[in-house]
Amino acid sequence: MEQIIKSLQLNLIKDNRYMYIIDGLKNTMIITIFATLLGIFLGLIVALVRTTYDNTKKLKVLNAICNLYITVIRGTPVVIQLMILFFCIFTSRNVSGVMIAIIGFGINSGAYVAEVFRSGLMSIDNGQMEAGRSLGLSYLDTMKFIIIPQAFKVVLPTLGNEFIVLIKETSVAGYVAVQDLTKGGDIIRSRTYDAWTPLLIVAGIYLFLTCVFSAFVKKLEINLRKNERKD
Amino acid sequence: MNKLLEIKDLCKSFGEHKVLKNISTDIYVGDVLCLVGPSGGGKSTFLRTLNLLELPTSGQILFEGTDITDKNTDIDNIRKKIGMVFQHFNLFPHLTILENMTLAPMKVLNQTKESSEDKAKELLNRVGLIDKLNTYPNMLSGGQKQRVAIVRSLMMNPDVMLFDEPTSALDPEMVGEVLDVMKELAREKMTMVVVTHEMGFAKEVANRVAFLDNGVFAYENSPDKFFNNPNNERLQSFLSKVL
Ligand SMILES: Nc1ncnc2c1ncn2[C@@H]1O[C@H](COP(=O)(O)OP(=O)(O)O)[C@@H](O)[C@H]1O
Ligand SMILES: [Mg+2]
Q1: What's the complex ipTM?
Q2: Which atom of ligand 1 is nearest the CA belonging to B46?
Q3: C-alpha neighbours within 13 Å on the C-beta side of residue B28
Q4: Which residues contact B136 (CB under 8 A, 6 or more apart)?
Q5: Does domain A2-230 have CATH number 3.40.50.10330?
Q6: What are the tens digits of pLDDT across the range B22-79?
Q7: Contacts of B146 in chain A (CB under 8 A)
Q8: Are A134 and B82 inside 8 Å of each other by CB?
């Protein structure tokens, strides 16, 4: 017992080391939240282009670009993508590491979210599009007011899970000089030469976060299913 | 009489499968044309080409003089004048009944929220559903849904209404309430093209009944002659099965 208190004292209290954890957690959450939003934005656009191409054979060039994007992003490790952004593209120092991580993880997530949205859009009965179009609504307006809102509801739990995956995936942000939660724990380890305590604390925080958000997503799913049953 | 729709040599194939074969007919303002025929005969396909939900393989469709198969025709502009009612209602489940009705008038006709809501309420009143204003489609019975679908189309002030088996998905006790709404529309001189198996409705309301069999208008006449001894063998055998 005394031993535990002592190592907590050393790893957290001394020199205000807990701030590495707090700041790291803050960065992890900032990166995760904004990367998820960017991923949703990109994913929705890519999914719309691909669905429109599938339905109408229009947007051929854009569709090819989207396919390339998905293939490249899903076919390479996210760490490499981050490092390319960091060391090759944003070489000037006035873009912060956090910003680069948001962009990198956002672009990465977009490629996965695109497929989620695409299956969501395809799950909406074709009669909805036909009803919208036969009322005189344009293709885009029908998508915007009728198809996308329904598809969004369908994919909401999956998007929640994507968020949870990103919480963990962003732990490699340290590769591009971002002090996220993992890096924060690592810094403490390098100061105290105690590996167990900071790593367990960090692992515990990740576990706590994913459990909380998973419970949230599950509740969301149950609520959505309840609404569905009334159909 | 004014021609509303002129259909010339209309053909539609799905791959090798010829579904509509050189159909030519005119639909006049005020016509109530009922289409009957065996399943798979091409009734839905014919109806859906009239507002270009299906693209004709060849032939022409003129709506109020405009060739809607012409690539330069703005089809959205045509579709807002052609109401369509589907077998499975196709209400928008994420919108309330009121929102289902006001969406298109506001987005397509640029009506204000107030004026479109006023109109929606008036129409809902007429079909006895004013109390459903703020409920969602999943709370309605099939008959109620179809009545909403009909007045949703009417919100656009269409020049013609297309119905694709509007009562086929309904429990028998709900068929009447939907047919009543359609009968009232016909009394108000709405031009209608109705695919139906309700022969009583066709007899009572239509001024023309056509037998669509194997992709052609195999027989067409006034309901009187259509149902009493038509000189078409396949129609006779079809009628003997359904009547
Ligand atoms: N989208 C489609 N793709 C391929 N075949 C189709 C499609 N729509 C209809 N068909 C075929 O066209 C024929 C006529 O169908 P339809 O117009 O629905 O007939 P009806 O409404 O008279 O029952 C059927 O054989 C059907 O299988
Ligand atoms: Mg049909």
Answers
A1: 0.96
A2: 17
A3: 7
A4: A230, B93, B94, B95, B96, B97
A5: no
A6: 999 999 999 999 999 999 999 999 999 999 999 999 999 999 999 999 999 999 999 9
A7: none
A8: yes
